[in-house]
Amino acid sequence: MYPTFTRRNRKIPVLLHADNTDRIQNANLDANGPFYFISHGFLEGGHKKWIENLANALLDIDGNESATVIIVDWRGGSQPPYGQSVANIRLVGVMTAHLIHNIYEVLQLPHIDNFHFIGHSLGAHLGGYCGHELQKKFNLKLGRITGLDPAAPYFSRTVTLVRLDRSDAKYVDIIHSNAMPLYFSGFGISEPIGHVDFYPNGGSTQPGCKQSDSPNQSASYQQVVKYVGCNHERSHEYFTESIAPTCPFMAIQCESHEAFLAGNCTNCDNKHFCIPMGYHSYDLYKHLQIGGLVDTNTNIALYSLTGNAKPYCKVHYKVVLKVANSTESKNHGPESGKVTITLVDRNNNKTDRRSLNPEQKYYKPGEIETKMLAFQDAGNPPLYVIVEWKYEASLFNPMTWRLIKSPSIFIEYIKLSSIEYNTEITVCPKMKKPVVNNLPTVMKTKYCKF
């Protein structure tokens, strides 16, 4: 069964069958489209709340009055054992291809470019089987397949015929959110398999998902599912939010997640493409395609940071902090603590406060630290920065003992480079004064007198 929704019937779906053309004829589908197909994964069904949220978000898009959302509900085949579910998606994929072909025939469509298959976990590979069958049997090619953390077990390191890959549609985009080996409690595939692969927060574990309750080796499959669920499900939460995001939801091409965190990729150019993660990625990819800047036979891997709760979308800044090497800084000596910064724009809007490091760090005079940080979007690039120094003494760490000197740090400058706004500013403390423990310090560009 394929529950089908439009703006006219959001609550009570029309039920389509793969081989029943009369139902398609009587469903009053708008030939203008677009047509969205949403598929769940293992242990799930088409009744899940995330599918309802995603369907409504797609129908709510401006200009999508003609849209149709079709749920690929294969809950009868998604139950344990996992190996049987893997086998079942091949059949469901073929059935869905026949449904798409029948819609194409009944509505007398010129092509299926505006058919978009969105699949989570096993549902992503189901989309791959659907796309492959459409080409093989009907000489039709899906416009787009979005893989939301495609499942790894039985699919990782396999030939393209077995899994979703970029040959299955004109555009294949992937969001990896739980890409790590199963023995580390990972369900998602790690290798890049689409035209564009997004690796938010590195693509394996997501902020806000508890890591402390990791199941042991003897844990049941259900326990493992419960643990990885948060990371694995975050992919469809990101995609749903990306339809009407609170900020650009930008990701940037980089050699690796480590290189991205080190601040090696901050300028959007021909070596480092910037593409919004999720729903709107195809628009920008098309521009790159038209400009001859991308080869559709190769992959683009992109990285980004998100928040740990909704809204997940953040804006990225490369932050370079230099500890002053002045006489006063040297006399004061090295200092252990945490630097936190808040960005303020021209309208006095403030971002959230972010720490350069999760734990206290030992800062030496002359040291330069580079970090990639994600902030709430204030609406404009920053004009100045509020800097705070957090110091906590530890009985067991002599480096943190302060008997006479006040806990403080002499910062020479902080340089901020924005990916989204393509701006760069350098701010400094007024009259080279130190940042004192628990005393917010305003740093501005005009205070920089090198």
Automatic annotation (TrEMBL):
GO terms for biological process: lipid catabolic process. Gene3D superfamilies: alpha/beta hydrolase. The keyword Calcium applies. GO terms for molecular function: carboxylic ester hydrolase activity; lipase activity; metal ion binding. It is found in: Secreted. Pfam families: Lipase (PF00151). GO terms for cellular component: extracellular space. The keyword Metal-binding applies. Ca(2+) binds at R163, D165, D168. Residues 19-282 form the Lipase domain. The active site is at S121, D149, H232. Keywords: Calcium, Metal-binding, Secreted. Belongs to the AB hydrolase superfamily. Lipase family. PANTHER family: LD47264P, LIPASE. This is Lipase domain-containing protein. It comes from Bombyx mori (Silk moth). The lineage of its organism: Eukaryota, Metazoa, Ecdysozoa, Arthropoda, Hexapoda.
